[in-house]
Write a structure and sequence with these properties.
It contains 5 helices and 9 strands, in the order E-H-H-E-E-E-E-E-H-E-H-E-E-H. It has 171 residues and is α+β, with helices and mostly antiparallel strands.
Length: 171
């Protein structure tokens, strides 16, 4: 039986993170130093870092990564509600997708729990129609409780998911 671990990504994971990001056909960023700085920032500042990420490690191998961006420059107002975090990437290694292991679902659930723990009320993401398999990705997000939001365009579908009630919803 394989042992899995969901944990914050560190600068030591940069080569695995880049290997996974390279599996996204439209991914163009190849700045290793930028990713290393982002992961070091997370190590130093924890939940307060602008960029964050988590990895799924199975039997010592990094098989998945999720990255987020947060902060005033990132947050977005959609249908009158502020969405403070952008889920930039969630990638499971191509050779380990499907098969009932639910690696993607486990990583997404972990990220959303972590964001809720940090006091984040929700997140948004884009499903880009130019990516191969975007319809499968859309189905994945919908099964995980993400909702298609106003603001979707011909090039992408905008999706949102609440992690916890916002302060306005509690009053």
């Amino acid at each position: 039986m394989s042992t899995s671990l969901l944990r914050p990504a560190t600068s030591a994971d940069v080569s695995d993170v880049l290997r996974l990001l390279a599996q996204v056909p439209t991914w163009e960023e190849d700045n290793v130093d930028s990713w290393r700085r982002d992961l070091q920032e997370q190590e130093e500042h924890g939940d307060g870092a602008v960029h964050g990420g988590w990895v799924l490690e199975v039997t010592g191998a990094v098989l998945g990564v999720a990255t987020v961006k947060r902060g005033r420059r990132i947050q977005k107002t959609i249908a009158g509600r502020l969405w403070p975090v952008y889920l930039e990437y969630l990638i499971i290694d191509k050779g380990h997708r499907g098969g009932g292991r639910r690696y993607g679902a486990r990583l997404e659930a972990h990220v959303m729990r972590e964001l809720a723990r940090q006091g984040c009320s929700g997140a948004f993401l884009h499903v880009f129609k130019r990516d191969d398999g975007w319809q499968d990705a859309l189905g994945f997000w919908k099964r995980r409780g993400w909702e298609q939001a106003a603001g979707s365009q011909a090039t992408h579908i905008l999706m949102t998911k609440k992690t916890a009630p916002s302060a306005l919803e509690l009053s």
